[in-house]
Specification:
Blueprint lengths: L1 H12 L16 E4 L2 E5 L12 H14 L14 H14 L3 E5 L2 H12 L5 E5 L4 H9 L3 E5 L4 H11 L6 E6 L11 H10 L3 E5 L14 H4 L8 E5 L9 E5 L1 H10 L1 H5 L5 H16 L2 H19 L12 E6 L1 H14 L1 E2 L1 E3 L9 E5 L7 H17 L4
Parallel strand pairs: 2-11, 4-5, 4-6, 6-7, 7-8
Antiparallel strand pairs: 1-2, 3-9, 8-9, 10-13, 12-13
The structure holds pyridoxal-5'-phosphate.
């Protein structure tokens, strides 16, 4: 325990120790955190589905029919018809042959990457890929190379010099990069993958429900259906529930049901979650009102921040970084904002490179214009008081 106490002390000494605030109700535009009402600009509940009445009804109904747990891993007796239905619905939504649900997006990445690569293979990964991809790569026996963020020349250099020394080569990228909000150069990646005979793997956690027609994601946005081998999504962000999935060819689903370790050794999502997700897909497929409102709000928020002279980076999606650069100042600003009625989480090293510390603002379809105006005014005044602007 001494070494843990020492590490804990280090975190506290470096002023980066934190405990999460406690929320006592659903995640909406206004939430109560540690007993205080604040404007919420930090959730991934992009479309407000996490507290939607129809999703709640679907979940209640599923509890009455199936109970609260799946009872076993999917490969034993935990494979309920509602899980099969969900896989099929996800495949339809993504316009792919098949899909397979995992317990979370994180579990999906750590389960799929290790299952589809082996010793003698090569994984090439963007330097800003999500932590769950990094962990997935660590669990694989393949060699790994990292390329400079979205730099296609750097990617091709690796392919040119190293590809021929390996069997299978897997190129992995986030669809939408979660800290900057930029979109992967998917058409170029797919082209390079073809030229050098590689498989492609896109983690579209922040693209699904946000980009493409009806929120079908980054692959749909670029009209690359059938061109990307592994399309990962999460069901915890825009979809508002919990879980992750991989979509692609039927063989991928069948192989992972046999060799994806989280399928074999961890119980799948609860039936109520599956039912709620199916209802979310019903809503997304029916109309685009929520997605349109999300983009409206995102554009409005970005315009308000730009008017105040803030550096908001190069986001192409609703993810809105507000770059402060200095680590301590960023944490100080976030704390002061919570006192002043706005919750935005600070993002500092090691989540982003040193010297690029930022607040990350996440608008949603739930926000009214007035919430965003108030939030920007409070952010500006607070930053002024702290001599950040
Ligand atoms: C959030 C996120 C995940 C993890 O998703 P969960 O379902 O919350 O585990 C994976 N990849 C990316 C890129 C993410 O942004």
């Amino acid at each position: 325990m001494d070494s843990i106490s020492k590490k804990l002390m280090e975190l506290k000494d470096n002023k980066i120790f934190k405990l999460p605030p406690i929320s006592d109700g659903p995640i909406e535009a206004i939430i109560t955190l540690d007993g205080k009402k604040v404007i919420n600009l930090s959730s991934n509940n992009y479309l407000g589905l996490a507290n939607d009445e129809n999703l709640k009804k679907a979940a209640h109904k599923a509890i009455d029919k199936y109970g609260v747990g799946a009872g076993a891993v999917r490969t034993i007796v935990g494979n309920m018809d509602i899980h099969e239905e969900l896989d099929q619905r996800l495949a339809n939504f993504k316009k792919e042959e098949a899909a397979l649900v995992f317990q979370s997006g994180y579990m999906c990445n750590i389960g799929v990457i290790q299952a589809v690569t082996e010793r003698g293979d090569l994984i090439i990964s963007d330097e800003l890929n999500h932590a769950s991809i990094i962990d997935g790569v660590r669990l694989s026996r393949a060699e790994k190379r990292i390329f400079k963020h979205s730099d296609m020349t750097a990617l091709e250099t690796i392919l040119k010099t190293e590809r021929e020394n390996f069997n299978t080569c897997l190129i992995i990228t986030d669809g939408v990069f979660s800290m900057d909000g930029d979109i992967a150069k998917l058409p170029e990646i797919v082209k390079l993958a073809k030229k050098y005979h590689c498989l492609t793997y896109v983690d579209d956690a922040h693209g699904s429900g946000v980009l493409g027609s009806h929120g079908r994601g980054t692959v749909d946005h670029f009209n690359l259906h059938g061109e990307v081998d592994f399309i990962i999504g999460t069901l915890s962000k825009a979809i508002g529930v919990v879980g992750g999935y991989v979509s692609g060819k039927k063989e991928i689903r069948e192989y992972l049901l046999n060799r994806g370790r989280p399928q074999l050794f961890s119980t799948t999502i609860v039936p109520a979650a599956a039912a709620a997700i199916i209802e979310a897909l019903n809503i997304l497929e029916k109309d685009e009102t929520r997605t349109k409102k999300l983009w409206d709000n995102a554009n409005y928020l970005k315009a308000l921040l730009a008017q105040k002279g803030f550096d908001i980076g190069n986001s192409e999606t609703p993810i809105t970084p507000l770059i402060i650069k200095d680590e301590e100042k960023t944490i100080e600003l976030s704390k002061a904002l919570l006192d002043n009625g706005v919750f935005v989480s600070p993002i500092v090293f090691p989540t982003v490179p040193k010297g690029t510390a930022r607040l990350r603002l996440m608008p949603s379809s739930m926000h009214q214009k007035k919430h965003l105006e108030d939030a920007v005014e409070i952010i500006y005044e607070t930053a002024k008081n702290l001599k950040i602007v």
